[in-house]
Amino acid sequence: NAGVTQTPKFQVLKTGQSMTLQCAQDMNHEYMSWYRQDPGMGLRLIHYSVGAGITDQGEVPNGYNVSRSTTEDFPLRLLSAAPSQTSVYFCASSSDYWTNYGYTFGSGTRLTVV
Amino acid sequence: GIQVEQSPPDLILQEGANSTLRCNFSDSVNNLQWFHQNPWGQLINLFYIPSGTKQNGRLSATTVATERYSLLYISSSQTTDSGVYFCAVYGGSQGNLIFGKGTKLSVKP
Question: Quick check: helix, strand or coil at residue B67?
Fold first, then answer.
């Protein structure tokens, strides 16, 4: 089925460990982004990409890296996990950068850092 | 940056009741979207509505861009309408959507 696929759905990390959250879309969308959702905070942008080879920082980028080697994939790397990174992470894509029309979210990754 | 405020933060309804959710934004925008996050966490795009009125079944939305607000109407609510409703506007500088904090809706049978 067409859409945005995120893996894993759940993850527990120890402080200081690193990991990669995977995101893939099969809609040929140029624009992809990562958000984190925390209670009472809504969704906040971590990093985004407007096409293969182009990435930029969002509102809360510290502690995260991204790369975009293909149109389909946009992985998010946690370099050294901290308890403050406990959150639900959403990847999203859109065909239109200027309006984000047709914004589609993945099902989320619930990350706990202990 | 643009501020997005939603009200009310929480809403409890009896099944069959109608409701109106409000979204205010602090600057002119060319894009506004409503999302529903179901109790399992999935975010679903309900409406892309930078201006005017749209309807989809029991849901409808109206955006008055000149007065910087949007309304989401839910008629004859059902328990499956429960969840959190987010309003989001296009922030421009980072190509991202800026989200409000949401309205948590609970529909009781």
Answer: helix
- Cα separation of A101 and A112, whole Å? 32
| Chain B residue nearest residue A91, CA to CA | B43
The CA R_g of chain A, rounded to the nearest whole Å, is 13
Cβ separation of A40 and B43 shorter than 8 Å?
A: no
Q: Which residues in chain A touch residue B51, judged by CB atoms under 8 angstroms apart?
A: none
> Are A102 and B55 contacting, i.e. CB atoms less than 8 angstroms apart?
no
- Alpha carbon distance A85, A83 (integer Å): 5
What are the tokens at A34? Answer: 């990562």
- Single-letter residue type at B74: I
Residues on chain B touching A90 (C-beta within 8 angstroms)? 43
For A75-101, letters b (16+ CB in 10 Å) and e give bbebeebeeebbbebbbbbbebbebbe
Per-residue pLDDT of chain B (109 residues; tens, 9 = 90+): 789 999 999 999 999 999 999 999 998 877 899 999 998 999 999 999 989 999 999 999 999 999 999 999 999 999 999 999 999 998 656 667 889 999 999 999 9
Shortest distance, CA A89 to any CA of chain B (angstroms): 11
Contacts of A1 (CB under 8 A, 6+ apart): none
